[in-house]
Amino acid sequence: xxxLVVRRLLIDLNxxxxxxxxxxxxxxSAFFSALSMSFPAGEQYFIDSVRNGLNALPxxxxxxxxxxxxxxxxxxxxxxxxxxxxxxxxxxLGYSNEIERRALxxxxxxxxxxxxxxxxxxxxxxxxxxxxxxxxxxxxxxLEGAEPRLQTMWLWHCAEESEHRSSAFDVxxxxxxxxxxxxRVFRYVTLTFLSDVLRQTVRNLWHDGSLFKWRSWRxxxxxxxAKDGLIRGSYGLWRDYLSTDFHPSQHxxxxxxxxxxxxxxxYSVVGT
Length: 272
Description:
By secondary structure, this protein is mainly α. 67% of the residues lie in helices and 3% in strands.
C-alpha cells in the first residue's frame, strides 16, 4: 500500500510541436511518441481492470484497498487525458496510431477472459512502465533538448508511474492471483509490449522520413542497448518480476519522490 496523490499538471499542451519534438532526435521522438500513442487505451484498460478487481473483493478487503484504487484511478485518468492531448498533435502531423487500434482489438477479443487475467496483464504492464519511468528519471539525456513543458509532462508521468507501481499488483494478489499465472501473463505482455512499441516506432520513423537514416538507428542503439540503456540496463529489474517473493515495493522509488518534491510548482494536488 502507498499514499497516492492525484495531481493536475500545470502545463499548456494547446501549442503544437514538431514531429521531432525530442531534441530534434528522430529515434527518441519516434520511440517516446509510440509510447504515448499506447497510453490512453492502455490506461483505460488498467483503470477498468483494477476497478473490477476491487469490486470482486470481499467487503473487508475492498474497504482496505479502496482508497489506493481510487487514487490509482485518478492518476491514470489524468495521464490518459494528458496523452490524448499530446497524441492529438501527433495526429495533426499525420502520424497513424496503429498501436492504439491494435490494443483496442486485443482488449475486445479478450474481454471474456477471467478477471485475474486482466489484473495480471495490468500488473505486468505497470511493471514495465515503472521500469521505464525509473530509467527515464535516472537518464535526463533521454529528453535532452525537448521543450520544458514536454520534459515536465514526461517526467511527471514517470514519477507517478513509479509512485503507483504496486497498486495493480496488490489487487491481483488480493483476488487470489497466483505466481504461476502472473509469470505466464508477464511473458506474454513482454512479447506484445515490446513488439507493439517497436512496430509503432518504425511506423513513426517511416512517416518522419528517417527510417533508413543511419543516425536514427545509431540513436536507437544508444537509447536502448547501451550498457545502461533502457533495455540492456533494465534487464535485472525485468527479471526480478519472475521471483516468487517479488513485490513492486522492492524497487527503489526515491527518484520519483525527489522529482515530485522538487517540482511542486509544476502541478496542483486535486486529491489526497
